[in-house]
Amino acid sequence: MGISELFLKKINFEFKNFVTLIKKAMIPQSRISEQLIYSKLSLLSSEPLKQELLFYMDYLLNKQFNEGNMKRKPKFGCAKGSFNLAPDFDEPLDDFKEYM
Fold first, then answer.
1. What are the residue ranges in the chain where pLDDT is below 50?
2. What residues have CB less than 8 Å from 53, skipping those under 6 apart?
3. How many angstroms separate the CA atoms of 65 and 29, rounded?
4. How far, in Å, are 9, 19, 33, 52 from residue 14 at the CA level?
5. What residue numbers bound the domain in which 40 lies?
6. What per-residue confidence (pLDDT) applies to 12?
7. Is residue 25 one of the residues assigned to a domain?
8. Has residue 22 been placed in a domain?
9. Residue 66's pLDDT is what?
């Protein structure tokens, strides 16, 4: 497991704890505002923690924008009838007759 995977697991764990604290404080998630986020950010005193928070915010933004871009796996047979092959497709080519 790479460092980035461990980092993301740690961030995810800490975010879940943050959500639990919010629920315990009885703040409805619909009322979470920018002001609350800024006030929590101002409580962080160390630069490494602020940097870690920025990394996690970037992760969440990438996750949000990439969820809509997920490619769907095509169903078997969805291109049926899209291609027409010539009736003599399986016949040997005239160029190779001397080798056969």
1. none
2. 41, 44
3. 21
4. 9, 9, 20, 11
5. 3-57
6. 67
7. yes
8. yes
9. 75
